[in-house]
Amino acid sequence: MNINVLKFGGTSMNDHQTWKRVLDIIRSYEYPVVVVSATARTTRKLLEAGKLAAGGDLTGAKKIAEEIYDRHYELVKNFLDENPHKKNQLILESCDKKLDEKTGLLKKYLDYTAKTGSLEPKMSDAIASIGEQISSYLLAQCGLALDILTQHIEAKKLIKTDHQYGSANPNRMLISQKCGSLETVLESGFTPVIGGFYGEAPDGTTTTLGFEGSDYSASLIGAGVHARTIEIWTDVSGVYTSDPRHIDHARPIAEMSYYDATEMAYFGAKVLHPSTLKPAQERNIPVLVKNIFEADAPGTQIIRESHTNRKVLAMSFKQNMTLVTVSAYETLMGYSFLTKVFAALEDLHLPVDAVNTTEASVTLAIADSPKLDQLTKNLIAFGSVEIESEKGLISLIGCKIAEMKKLNEQIFSSIGETTVDMITFTKDKRILSLVVNENDLIPTAQGIHDQVF
After folding, report:
1. Number of helices and strands in the chain (H, E)
2. Contact at 8 Å (CB) between 101 and 137?
3. Which site in 9, 76, 237, 348 is 20 to 30 Å from 422, CA atoms measured?
4. Model confidence over 40-59: pLDDT tens digits?
5. What share of the chain is helix, strand, coil (3-state, %, to 5)?
6. Is residue 239 within 8 Å of residue 269, measured between CB atoms?
7. Residue 271's pLDDT band (cuts 50, 70, 90)
8. By three-state DSSP, how is residue 52 classified?
9. H or E segment and range at residue 320
10. Rounded to 5 degrees, what are φ and ψ at 88?
């Protein structure tokens, strides 16, 4: 059985017209397994409601719940109006009942949050996952209006995780076991539709896989069913040389390796979740990134090994970065000092994007986090600490070592008078990173892209 796992993101799930495109794409596959995100902006709205409830504005929080109900009901009604079918009244009633159930559950969560006065990680995950629970059920129902035998499958039956709320770690072995049930559904002639992003901890509570985690869900399920391909359907035609929303003349990349795609995602590319590719890579499953508005366009194929003649494969960038510089006290030098710095980072689970070290000091580029205040307090015990906020990180991925001299010349000629706070290069990873002021980030990235690509 040649199974294709198809994941559709928030922009693909935006309105009734994109739902029609999504379902037409699904119809073109023999054995598709479908994973969907929440409709565009719904997850952000859900988390906003949770924060309002925690802050005492329960009325405002519940207003958002009502808006989510109204938006989804209108979406389904518009879809059914434009796609007449004898079952449409039953489909609308079923969708309305599910919306009542899920928004009612959301309101209970908001009541609890308002009562406790805080948005606990467990409750945040329960609230955030409502969007995918709604969208997956409604899309499966709308498929019936097009005579597609779509069947909603509850994600918690498949995606098993630990208790790390907000960024749960999947139990890969258990997920593979549970995914066997999907083949039974396919063999019966039905197309499974599953909500991405969330799963279930051992005690039955809801967990999430991190922001944009629906990609990860698709990859985990793809590995579990030994899929022929895992396809990420979005609103751009593949992975680009840089973010086309900000960088003029960014171009799609026809093919790239799992490794380079993962590095792009980690260093800020928005097309893929950073953890997406690991399950696919372990099973050697090609990952395709495609555009629902140009379904016949080739997009980008991500495979085990890929070769390019470019000096640089791609460029990613991140906003909201902070530089932390720690200088050792005279009584603490060398490896002992560096060991303590990185132990402090590990204790707070703070990842570092770029690092520059000497024997007596270290500079770290870290994404803004509420934990930075605590990190600073911990680091003061063995060194003076300087914090520089409002920084941006530019990373050139897949640099060719033989071209580094020419590449450096192009980069620095494009930068001009822009202040560069830190430069790092990793030969093995072929990544060159620069830290600049956040206000200079996009213009600097555009200049580099114009020169290098």
Report:
1. 14, 16
2. no
3. 348
4. 999 999 999 999 999 999 99
5. 45, 25, 35
6. yes
7. confident
8. helix
9. strand 314-328
10. -60, -35
**346-370 burial: b if 16+ Cβ within 10 Å, else e:** eeeebeebbbbeeebbbbbbbbeee
Among 337, 341, 223, 239, smallest CA distance to 284 is for 223
Residue-range domains of the chain with CATH: 4-303 (3.40.1160.10), 314-452 (3.30.2130.10)
Token output for 155? 């994600």
Q: Give alpha helix (H) positions in 302-439.
A: 334-347, 372-379, 404-415
Strand pairing class (229-234; 206-208): unpaired
Contact between 215 and 7 (Cβ < 8 Å): yes
Side chain identity at residue 116, one-letter code: T
- What pairing do the DSSP bridges indicate for beta strands 229-234 and 287-291? parallel
Compute the distance between CA of residue 23 and CA of residue 452 in angstroms, rounded to an integer.
39
Dist. CA 256–CA 287, nearest whole Å: 10
Which of 169, 173, 172 has its CA nearest to residue 210?
Answer: 169
Q: Which residue has the tokens 């079952």?
A: 87
Q: pLDDT tens digits for 377-388? A: 999 998 999 999
Return the closest-CA partner of residue 79 out of 95, 101, 100.
Answer: 95
- The label of the residue with tokens 């119809």 reads 27
Q: Two tokens at 338?
A: 């560096």
Quote the tokens at residue 236.
Answer: 């751009």
- The angle subtended at Cα 450 by Cα 445 and Cα 453, nearest 5°, is 100
396 contacts 448 by C-beta, under 8 angstroms: yes
Q: Which bin fits 238, alpha (ψ -120 to 50), beta or left (φ > 0)?
A: left
Coil, helix or strand at residue 451:
helix
Paired with 317 in beta bridges are 394
Torsion sign across C-alpha atoms 174, 175, 176, 180? positive
pTM equals 0.88
Residue 23 tokens read as: 């379902």
